Amino acid sequence: MKIAICPGSFDPVTLGHLDIISRASGLFDKVIVAVLCNMDKNPSFTVEERMELLRQVTSQYDNVEIDSFQGLLVDYAKEKGAVAVVKGLRAVSDFEYEFQMSMINKKLYADVETVYLNTSQDYMYLSSSVVKQIASFGGDISNFVPEAIHDKIVDRLRNI
Ligand code: PNS
Fold first, then answer.
1. What is the number of the ligand 1 atom nearest to the C-alpha of 74?
2. Mapping DSSP to helix (H, G, I), strand (E, B) and coil, where does residue 79 land?
3. What is the pLDDT of residues 109-151, one digit of tens each?
4. Which residues, listed in sequence order, are joined to residue 7 by a DSSP beta bridge?
5. pTM for this entry
6. Separation between Cα atoms, residue 87 and residue 53, nearest integer Å
7. Which of 92, 94, 98, 112 to pair with 124, CA 20 to 30 A apart?
8. What is the DSSP letter of 151?
9. How far apart are CA 32 and CA 154, in angstroms?
């Protein structure tokens, strides 16, 4: 069974993330969406809340599982027996950082490949921090986050 990990902060999950997750679910037997616990950012949602939002929006994919991890991604990938780490690439600006990460990860653990999916055109500009900024100023985020969790995200972010 080919297992892939989709790692990230998912604070909160956006339509851009969901696009990558759904496409990865078509490529691999199983996709584990893994929420990073060792955050140095100031999270708006707890790890449990982020996992719950992810569960809600991925429930239609039978081969997608939601989990969380602490520490190094490669250790987690090894523990899960994953063959790939799947990431979305937006603009060229993502490339340098992602390239460095994939090189380091390959050195640390050669048996996992990093697979990049180009973000769909509609989500090129999208990130969790953009969503947070718009929502905190009362802007409309309905084009950026899944409908099922829109209200929960708005409720949390407008009170920041
Ligand atoms: O959604 P994000 O914040 O872009 O996700 C970043 C993530 C979780 C993929 C990345 O920070 C990560 O893999 N962190 C785990 C620590 C690690 O393994 N670092 C790589 C060696 S420098």
1. 18
2. helix
3. 999 999 999 999 999 999 999 999 999 999 999 999 999 999 9
4. 34
5. 0.95
6. 19
7. 112
8. H
9. 26
Q: Which residue has the tokens 């719950």?
A: 52
Q: What is the DSSP string of 29-66?
A: SEEEEEEE----S--SS-HHHHHHHHHHHHTT-TTEEE
**Given the residues 90, 150, 152, 156, the one annotated as active site:** 90
Q: Give the Å distance between the CA of 26 and the centre of ligand 1.
A: 23
Kind and range of the H or E run holding 8: strand 3-8
Any atom of ligand 1 within 6 Å of the Cβ of 36:
yes
Q: Is 117 in the pocket of ligand 1 (CB under 6 A)?
A: no
Structure tokens at 123: 């989500």
Q: What is the three-class DSSP state of 115?
A: strand
Cα dist. 98→12, 64, 81, 116 in Å?
A: 20, 23, 22, 9
In 70-148, the DSSP E strands lie at: 84-89, 113-118
Kindly list the structural domains of the chain, giving each domain's residue range(s) and its CATH number in brackets, ordered by start. Answer: 3-121 (3.40.50.620)
pLDDT tens for each residue of 4-62: 999 999 999 999 999 999 999 999 999 999 999 976 678 999 999 999 999 999 999 99
